[in-house]
Amino acid sequence: MIKNLKTEISYVAQKDKDFWFLLDKHISFAEYNKKVRDRQGYILSVDGKNIGLLRYNLFWDNTPFCNIIKSF
After folding, report:
1. pLDDT tens string 4-19
2. Phi/psi at 55 (5° precision)
3. How far is CA 58 from CA 15, 31, 43, 55, in A?
4. What string of DSSP letters covers 30-71?
5. Do 59 and 67 form a contact (C-beta atoms < 8 A)?
6. Rounded Cα distance, 65 and 48, in Å
7. How much of the chain exceeds pLDDT 70, in percent?
8. Global confidence as pTM
9. Which of 12, 56, 60, 68 has the most crowded CB, counting CB atoms within 10 A?
10. Do the bridges between strand 63-71 and strand 49-59 make them parallel or antiparallel, or are there none, so unpaired?
């Protein structure tokens, strides 16, 4: 039986901090706060449970570059 799963991608928020640092060990708390402020990170959730993240920076202040994609 195939179950319909609700998949959602949302901007990273302060409430996601604990989950984020389970997967991303490469940024500081200050940098995380900038990602939240600048909307440069995403959380993937399935049926309300966080399962992955994506973080990016900008080259030359205008070209997105993916730094990390990670999931459980």
Report:
1. 889 999 999 999 999 9
2. -130, 140
3. 24, 14, 18, 11
4. HHHHHHHHHT-EEEEEETTEEEEEEEEEEETTTEEEEEEEEE
5. no
6. 27
7. 97
8. 0.86
9. 12
10. antiparallel
